[in-house]
Automatic annotation (TrEMBL), chains A, B:
NCBIfam families: TAT_signal_seq
UniProt cross-references to InterPro entries, sorted A to Z: KFase/CYL, KFase_sf, TAT_signal, TAT_signal_bac_arc
Designated name of the protein: Twin-arginine translocation signal domain-containing protein
UniProt xrefs under Gene3D superfamilies: Putative cyclase
GO molecular function, one term: arylformamidase activity
One annotated GO biological process: L-tryptophan catabolic process to kynurenine
Organism ancestry: Bacteria, Pseudomonadati, Pseudomonadota, Alphaproteobacteria, Hyphomicrobiales
Length: 275, 275
């Protein structure tokens, strides 16, 4: 599918799902006029007492979308010889637990260095689809899942990041993380449905979405529909997030330690949650 | 100076300055038995309302200790041709606003990936030596500066990072950041005095030190005395920290978004303070 076909297809599907968005279920949907609208730094009422690491360790064989090695380490100085250690690393920006900046899927969107720091600290809403993902590796976060979350937890907090917990982090060091099907190429892992992304885009304050898999779009996506809708809107995404199962569905605060690479389309990030 | 001479010299100076440490001025000095002792996540009493970015943007010409380029960017995919953008970066771990892990100056200290996440979130104490640094580029944070801080602000908070604010961040894109002297090689910028580092090491809960210059040791240091004392003790350092002047001397909470590189001796970090 060519780029323009992809965009048209995505737009059509967005419009067709407008009726799914009820308007009242996302805090600030009516009030917030732009992404830059200030939101409280912390959603929780009590001072956080614990930091949880949502970051996978980065190693050279970290699984990748394209199934080619994307991280390379080289020792420059070693203690035995030089009395100090220094390494050089080479990496594709989209490796490990990492951020997708708007520039990743747009001609002139914000680079990772241009995302305001206030947008890297936000309340975290976790949508648990582990049960359906266990039954179906191609499961997606749908508008119904978002509605189920707000039914159980109240409005999405202003300026939130909405994360998918599919349980896929447990498969990181096995073939099931990429989960290539019988055709030898199509991957099968969970992601966001374009209609869920569109629903969240109608809540202007939502800053980011996060997944514990290799892509915001689910494995068999033919068109990166979520990438092409979400990122050019000025929002960010997080992929290969770890350890979401250690957190409550609502109430944690996310800090995205994204690298401040000039012109970067994203990058390996230290992602920490406070609870 | 050979490695063993350096270590012996550092040890001698540590012992000679023990009388500078009064014991009572650092919270938890007596009680905390190890670096792993739990400390409150936030020092401030009120919920933080603002995030300050303490990270310089990373660009290929970012000044370096060795005065050789340490960061390289290469486009792998571009929007015009591929409908998405991805870059590859190559970097020396000790580039930009970055963390020094214990492994940087020890044979077998903790790598950057092995630092517990709880040690990357801590109260921030800022020692302002801008006035003396303006008069003397070789100025150092001394035990007297630490005592002046505790006299003004009370005990150092449990588990703190102690940061030097020398004002050097303003020189980042000028020759004054490295500030090479008339001999054509010796650099002149502020850093920690070994006796201040030793004083802080006697407060077992202090997790890190930070500087707004290229090195924990001041420019003319012949022996990396602070590096060789501080890092092998299991603590971390931050170099080239930005924007400390925007923060209060006491009361901010630091989040160090260090890259979780397996076997890494440190790395470019997203450093964010909450106030």
């Amino acid at each position: 599918m060519c780029h323009h076909c992809v965009i048209d297809s995505v737009k059509d599907r967005m419009l067709s799902r407008r009726d799914f968005f009820k308007g009242g279920a996302v805090a600030g949907a009516a009030a917030a006029a732009s992404l830059a609208a200030p939101a409280p730094l912390f959603a929780q009422k009590a001072m956080p007492t614990k930091a949880e690491d949502l970051t996978h360790e980065l190693f050279e064989a970290f699984p990748t979308f394209f199934n080619e090695q994307q991280l390379f380490k080289k020792a420059l100085f070693n203690y035995a010889e030089h009395k100090f250690n220094i390494n050089e690393w080479r990496f594709n920006e989209h490796t490990g637990t990492h951020l997708d900046a708007p520039l990743h899927f747009s001609a002139d969107g914000k680079s990772v260095a241009e995302i305001p720091v206030a947008d890297l600290v936000c309340p975290l809403a976790i949508i648990d689809i582990r049960q359906k993902a266990a039954d179906n590796a191609d499961a997606q976060v749908t508008p119904d899942d978002i509605t189920a979350w707000t039914d159980a937890n109240g409005d999405l907090p202003e300026g939130a990041c909405v994360a998918m917990l599919s349980g896929w982090g447990a498969h990181l060091e096995t073939g099931k993380f990429r989960n290539v099907g019988e055709d030898g190429k199509t991957m099968h892992f969970p992601g966001f449905h374009i209609e869920a992304a569109q629903m969240l885009m109608e809540a202007p304050s939502v800053k980011g979405i996060a997944v514990d898999t290799l892509s915001l779009d689910h494995g068999p996506s033919p068109d990166f529909a979520v990438h092409y809708a979400w990122l050019p809107s000025g929002r960010w995404g997080l992929e290969c997030v770890a350890n979401l199962e250690s957190l409550p569905a609502s109430g944690a605060t996310l800090v995205v330690g994204a690298p401040k690479l000039r012109g970067g389309t994203g990058g390996p990030s230290r992602v920490i949650a406070m609870v």
